Design the sequence.
């Protein structure tokens, strides 16, 4: 059994940084709260003005600081509070995924979702799915700075 | 971290947070964070003693920034920022850590929830550590208002706003204002005539010196922000000069084209040139381009020939008007859920199965039968009429999950109107529950049951079909446990209300959200019921959710009051969390200029310059800049990197 698999079988809990746009996804996560829809506590949210303001540097920074997965969640395409910010975010998906693959990090560690302010249940599902999909990948070490 | 003196205040929110999160531990851990000089927890931080305690701590400890770990910033960010200001702090050095909606309410494991609350709070401490004091930017206000939708909600809002002295542009898609209320025959619970109470208001609108009425028009584009919106309004051609038209009906008399009349929901026919109904505002005929033979004197031209005042002009073209307004009221109303969705009830294919609005037109003195209740199929008087409530409502598996709120009342009204027209007829009402909350509503329903002898059957109808000239109704009476079969002459379905067609489009145009059922979303279900999530855009009427006329009028008045309050100021403050440029880093590459959705960035002397009034602080520019030369104040890359670290520590 490889080292990575060994860790997976123990109580491995992926650590996720979730960038949520202020207008839709953060409000959607609030609605999940108001509706008391339970989901795992693995993701710590950071509210940003717009998904379009999330620089690829933030995603790399999170992986560098030890995140096992990074979520960016914005308004549905066409519904951006800032007109077209989420188009800019969408354009970055492929760029970031390719870059991650190039440096040897599983591209699936980065996920983008569209969650509106009315979709509390969807937000909780996004988190549940992402946590489950990250489990088999095990801890992310490739980009993690040595913090010993 | 910069050298800050930050205070952290962890709220229990009664038991809302404290039941899941160890708030004392959060406060203890925060006390050990770099830059934190004071940390405490309290049962209700937003209460008066809670707020005063924060003020006292700011003064006692000489704090320069505070973090409140509590509920969503949507709820109390303003409360705590105003409070920080009272203590002499700059309000933009107060940050909220949302440990209720995003933590305590969605997790059960106390240890993990506490751990996450610590991360969220620490992250806010780091952001506060680099927060700069900012002052709101003053922007001038356009003291003019756009009201979208000319139903009772839009009419009421427009009148209230105009009566306060502000200019109003009222835009209506149809050829007349009045909306669905105009189609109603009588209104519950007083049974006063709908047109009699609405028409005077419509006339007031048309004569009001402060109201510019634009019918047959649609809002196509909206830009700008609160205080200064710019809107493009498309006015479709009516091909009739409303100033000249004398509504003599000569044109319609000669028009050879006959199409179903949408005002009577297809129960009558109209000509291509028509007036929706006799008291329409504006009082003018409209030539329906899609039905007309061709707007061409060679092909037809009969109406133009016969019009003595020369009001008809085939050369009218669509016009786009650009208007600047300071606030917008959206009152785009509802439509009925289509019969075609109700397969078990005939899917709209069975004759004499009507929807609620069609029955209104049947009862209305100005309607299809001049107020006589007659079967549309053979114009006989129906002796057995079945009314079915909750059609499409309260059915999450197949149709709409919500209660449409008004159907119990209008069905009782329908049964009553029917019995007054046909005293020897029988009215059956199938219902699930009777929801008659409202002043005089319960008494009204009881009166219909007792005095008008409407037969109320508690249960649903499973099937409708035609049999021997009648409509066979198969249902159950769950109070007796019996199956019920009725051979009805007419069936009236109380179909669910849904957002009007075009609601999705207008929500997109205005950048305001919709709820899960497609209605326009209010900023807060209890505390901000008429505000949309976008500042300066307000909601009124059924566009926001099903409601009856009194509630609609009240909400329209509330929206008007909000608008009047907003525009009573000479300047508005614009959030100062806008983009700024580090000149030493900027190379003038113009990447930010093209990324900005507001055209707020320009290039001067080879460097990017931000117009702070136009900038909305979205940060698209900062994510595009390769050199971190442009960033959003109090959301800088340095702050975000430190917040990320705090989330993972």
Sequence:
């Amino acid at each position: 059994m490889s080292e990575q698999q060994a860790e997976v079988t123990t109580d491995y809990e992926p650590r996720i940084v979730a960038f949520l746009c202020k207008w839709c996804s953060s409000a959607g996560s609030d609605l999940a709260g108001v509706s008391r829809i339970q989901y795992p506590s693995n993701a710590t949210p950071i509210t940003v003005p717009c998904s379009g303001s999330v620089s690829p540097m933030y995603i790399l920074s999170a992986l560098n600081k030890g995140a096992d997965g990074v979520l960016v969640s914005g308004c549905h395409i066409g519904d951006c509070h800032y007109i077209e910010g989420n188009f800019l975010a969408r354009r970055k998906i492929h760029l970031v995924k390719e870059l991650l693959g190039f440096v040897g990090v599983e591209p699936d560690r980065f996920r983008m979702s569209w969650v509106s302010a009315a979709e509390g249940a969807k937000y909780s599902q996004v988190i549940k799915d992402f946590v489950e999909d990250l489990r088999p990948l095990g801890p992310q070490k490739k980009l993690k700075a040595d913090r010993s | 971290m910069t050298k800050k003196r930050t205070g952290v205040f962890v709220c229990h929110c009664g038991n809302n947070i404290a039941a899941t999160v160890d708030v004392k531990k959060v406060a203890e851990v925060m006390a050990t964070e770099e830059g934190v000089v004071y940390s405490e927890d309290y049962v209700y931080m937003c209460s008066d003693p809670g707020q005063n305690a924060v003020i006292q701590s700011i003064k006692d400890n000489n704090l320069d920034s505070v973090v409140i770990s509590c509920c969503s910033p949507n709820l109390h960010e303003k409360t705590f920022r105003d409070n920080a200001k009272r203590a002499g702090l700059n309000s933009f050095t107060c940050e909220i850590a949302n440990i209720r909606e995003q933590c305590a309410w969605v997790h059960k494991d106390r240890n993990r929830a506490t751990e996450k609350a610590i991360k969220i709070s620490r992250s806010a401490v780091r952001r506060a550590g680099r927060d700069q004091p900012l002052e709101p930017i003053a922007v001038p206000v356009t003291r003019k208002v756009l009201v979208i939708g000319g139903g009772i909600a839009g009419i009421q809002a427009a009148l209230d706003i105009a009566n306060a002295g502000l200019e109003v542009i009222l835009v209506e898609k149809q050829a007349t204002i009045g909306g669905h209320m105009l189609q109603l025959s009588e209104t519950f619970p007083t049974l006063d005539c709908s047109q009699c109470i609405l028409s005077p208001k419509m006339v007031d609108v048309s004569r009001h010196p402060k109201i510019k009425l634009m019918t047959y028009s649609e809002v196509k584009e909206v830009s700008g922000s609160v205080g200064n919106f710019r809107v493009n309004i498309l006015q479709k051609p009516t091909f009739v000069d409303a100033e000249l038209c004398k509504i003599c009906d000569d044109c319609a008399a000669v028009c050879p084209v006959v199409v179903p009349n949408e005002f009577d929901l297809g129960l009558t026919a109209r000509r291509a040139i028509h007036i929706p109904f006799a008291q329409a505002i504006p009082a003018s005929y409209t030539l329906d381009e899609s039905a007309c033979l061709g707007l061409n004197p060679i092909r037809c031209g009969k109406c133009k020939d016969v019009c003595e005042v020369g009001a008809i002009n085939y050369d009218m073209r669509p016009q786009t008007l650009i208007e600047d307004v300071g606030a917008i009221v959206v009152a785009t109303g509802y439509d009925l859920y289509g019969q075609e969705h109700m397969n078990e009830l005939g899917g709209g294919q069975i004759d004499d199965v009507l929807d609620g609005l069609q029955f209104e037109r049947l009862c209305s003195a100005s309607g299809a039968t001049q107020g006589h209740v007659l079967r549309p199929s053979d114009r006989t008087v129906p002796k057995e009429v079945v009314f079915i409530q909750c059609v499409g409502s309260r059915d999450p598996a197949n149709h709409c999950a919500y209660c449409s709120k008004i159907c119990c009342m209008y069905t009782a009204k329908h049964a009553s109107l029917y019995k007054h027209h046909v005293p020897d007829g029988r009215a059956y009402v199938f219902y699930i529950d009777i929801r008659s909350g409202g002043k005089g509503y319960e008494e009204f329903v009881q009166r219909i049951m007792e005095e008008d002898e409407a037969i109320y059957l508690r249960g649903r109808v499973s099937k409708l079909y035609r049999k021997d000239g009648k409509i066979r109704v198969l249902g159950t009476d769950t109070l007796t446990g019996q199956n019920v079969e009725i051979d009805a002459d007419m069936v009236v379905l109380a179909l669910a209300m849904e957002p009007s067609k075009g609601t999705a489009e207008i929500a997109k145009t205005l950048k305001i959200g919709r709820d899960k059922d497609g209605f326009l979303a209010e900023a807060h279900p209890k505390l901000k019921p008429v505000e949309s999530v976008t500042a300066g855009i307000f909601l009124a009427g059924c566009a926001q959710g099903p409601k009856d006329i009194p509630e609609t009028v009240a909400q329209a008045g509330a929206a008007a009051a909000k608008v009047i309050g907003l525009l009573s100021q000479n300047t508005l403050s614009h959030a100062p969390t806008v983009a700024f440029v580090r000149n030493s880093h900027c190379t003038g590459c113009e990447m930010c200029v093209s990324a900005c959705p507001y055209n707020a960035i320009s290039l001067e002397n080879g460097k990017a310059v931000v117009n702070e009034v136009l900038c909305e602080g979205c940060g698209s520019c900062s994510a595009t800049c390769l050199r971190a030369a442009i960033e959003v104040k109090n959301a800088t890359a340095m702050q975000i990197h430190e917040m990320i670290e705090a989330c993972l520590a």
User: Anything to note?
Assistant: Chain B has a mean pLDDT of 95. Chain B touches chain A through 52 residues (CB under 8 Å). The radius of gyration of chain B is 30 Å. The domain at 237-317 of chain B is CATH 3.30.70 (Alpha-Beta Plaits).
